[in-house]
Structure prediction request, 332 residues.
Amino acid sequence: MSLKPGRVFSGARPTGRQHLGNYLGAIKNYVALQDEYECVYSIVDLHALTTLESTQDLRQNSYEMALDWLAAGLDPQKCIIFIQSHVPEVTELHTILSMVTPLGKLTDLPTFKEKARMHPHNINYGLVGYPVLMTADIALYRANWVPVGVDQAPHIEFSRETIRSFNFHFNTNALVEPQMKVTNVPKVLGIDGQQKMSKSLNNHIELAATPEETQQRVLSMVTDPARIRRTDPGNPDVCNVFSMHKIFSGSEEVEMINVECRRAGIGCVDCKKRLAKNMNASLQPFRDRRADFDSKPDQVWDILHDGARRATVIAEETMHDVRAAVGLAERD
Ligand code: SF4
Prediction:
């Protein structure tokens, strides 16, 4: 029996190689939580099917994401890492939960409206039922906690209501209502300095990029727009390069830039080169670990398959209670 104070579940769509925004916004927190909680982390490949984009890359994207998670410090001895579709009970629970979910509630969700706007020619059932599948993920592993940023709070509220509704309808406590673990993660802007870092916007910096690629991306970062000439004083408070310096550079260098930028004592190119150098130094251990895992792909798949076996043990317990509560005939 675990001595940890509860179970955390989180899932992320397999988007392939991860970027700094993924790391600072989620993975870093995953790594911190694994020491304190019993953590279950899922690469949610079934969710990726809802928009039916380049599914031929799904397997490779799942593998690349696992590489990044492992290299960033997720430890299969401390947490469960697995691929969602390897535990098919989630689809059964999804079907059962869909019976207690009013359709209007799903179509009213802002995320559905946004997705429907983005994919007007493919508004399929999976897209509508996405939050129910997400709820099934959380409920199947009886998570007590779900780490979220403030903007994701409505999703978890939906899951909590759906689980409550199931338990009420079938007069059971088979499913656990999760709590939100709101994490104060920084909003990481992309190299455009405007929008959240995202692969689809191509404004990202991959964790596993080469030092040269990283430097190239950093050199193309948008800076304080008011600083047009080298001799113009700048304002680091509105510059994304400076925000990144605060993450990757030492305090003395950050303070030097803070002062020198304001009196045009340092140029933006020099400032960015310093950032690229510090970023590369900081990411190198990660890249080394990633290359090491990548040289042993069988080991990575073994970790994922073992994770699925451990996740299945929890899932089977939950489904046993769910089937009994619903009144489905027992399996042999
Ligand atoms: Fe930004 Fe650095 Fe240029 Fe100042 S010197 S505007 S902090 S890139």
User: Anything to note?
Assistant: The two ends are 27 Å apart (CA to CA).
